[in-house]
Design a protein that fits this description.
Structural class: mainly alpha
Radius of gyration: 13 Å
């Protein structure tokens, strides 16, 4: 994920504090092993997993996720955690 996408997503999430706990839980669940040893020092998913998810969603393994899509996914995760 590019720095620009991470920045745009961070700004969007700053306006949605209800999603902060979800972000922390999902980052913990999806972070690549040893993420703290690699630049950027952010708990991003493994590149293979991210490519697979991009391929299944957008039809292109190299495409970055839309910020709106990530927010919808996080809302979905929050609802699933609630047992809705």
């Amino acid at each position: 994920m590019s720095v620009g996408t991470v920045a745009a997503l961070t700004l969007a999430l700053l306006r949605r504090p209800a999603l902060w706990p979800v972000v922390v839980r999902q980052a913990h669940r999806l972070a690549a092993r040893g993420w703290w040893r690699r630049v950027p020092f952010v708990p991003l998913p493994d590149a293979t997993y991210a490519g697979f998810r991009a391929l299944t969603q957008y039809g292109d393994a190299e495409r970055e996720p839309d910020v709106a899509d990530v927010l919808v996914w996080l809302e979905w995760c929050r609802e699933m955690e609630r047992g809705a």
